[in-house]
Structures are given as C-alpha cells and as structure tokens.
C-alpha cells in the first residue's frame, strides 16, 4: 500500500507533531531518571496516556538509575516481555511480573 501524498503544510505539521511526541517521551524518561516518577505509576497511566503508551518498556527501564542495556535485557527476558513491546501493549500478567521483578 502506497503512502498518501502530503502537501508541504501537512508534512510540516506531521513533523512538528512527531517532534513534540519525541520531546514528551524524553521528558518522561528524564523524570523517571530523576526519581520524580516511578515505573508502577507510569505503567498505570499507559492505557490512558498516549505518550506513555507509545514508549517502549525497555526505554522506560533504561531510565532507571543503575539499569543499563544488559540489565534491562536480562529483566525483560526473565519476565517474558519482548524488547520491542510498548507500555500500552503489556498484558496484566506481564505488567505484574515486571513490577515483581523490580522489587
């Protein structure tokens, strides 16, 4: 299926919207890194907040102090969560397994 042809104005608007979403996700990760937000609280908002919902779980975990790519990969493998899974796509059992593993 071919992508629709956008006018220059539509393309500029889409680029602006995408940049705003990336900035919001970065601010979310930064607030987790600073300890202003917790993973359980963020995951509770995943279904209702599109910014949180579209953020990859691995990126949220990497924001935690002391969690790098290796530790996050091991944690996701242990809980049975795919590395490309987004926060809104977590099932209740996956979410609970992740929260239990983080304790």
Describe the structure.
The structure is a single chain. The protein is an all-alpha fold. The protein has helices at 8-33, 39-44, 50-53, 57-62, 69-79, 92-102. α5 packs across α6. The chain is elongated, with a radius of gyration of 16 Å. It comes from Pseudonocardia xinjiangensis. Residues 34-100 form the Integration host factor-like helix-two turn-helix domain. This is Integration host factor.
Q: Helices, strands, pairings?
A:
Layout: H1 8-33, H2 39-44, H3 50-53, H4 57-62, H5 69-79, H6 92-102
Protein name: Integration host factor
Domain Integration host factor-like helix-two turn-helix: 34-100
InterPro entries: IHF-like_H2TH, IHF_actinobact
Explain briefly what this protein structure is.
This protein has 103 residues and is an all-alpha fold. The chain is 62% helix and 0% strand.
How would a crystallographer describe the biggest sheet? none
Number of helices: 6
**Strand count:** 0
Beta-strand level of the residues, as a percent range? under 5%
Structural class: mainly alpha
* Averaged pLDDT: 94
Helix content: 55-70%
Describe the global form: elongated
Measure the end-to-end span. 45 Å
Task: Enumerate the spans where pLDDT stays under 50 for 5 or more consecutive residues.
Answer: none
Protein name: Integration host factor
InterPro entries: IHF-like_H2TH, IHF_actinobact
Pfam families: H2TH_5
Domain Integration host factor-like helix-two turn-helix: 34-100
């Amino acid at each position: 299926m071919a992508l629709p042809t956008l006018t220059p104005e539509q393309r500029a608007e889409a680029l602006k919207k995408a940049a705003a979403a990336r900035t919001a996700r970065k601010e979310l990760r930064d607030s987790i890194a600073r300890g202003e937000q917790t993973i359980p609280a963020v995951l509770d908002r995943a279904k209702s907040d599109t910014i949180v919902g579209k953020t990859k779980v691995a990126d949220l975990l990497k924001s935690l102090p002391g969690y790098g790519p290796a530790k996050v990969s091991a944690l996701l493998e242990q809980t049975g969560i795919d590395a490309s899974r987004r926060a809104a796509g977590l099932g209740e059992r996956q979410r609970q397994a992740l929260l239990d593993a983080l304790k």
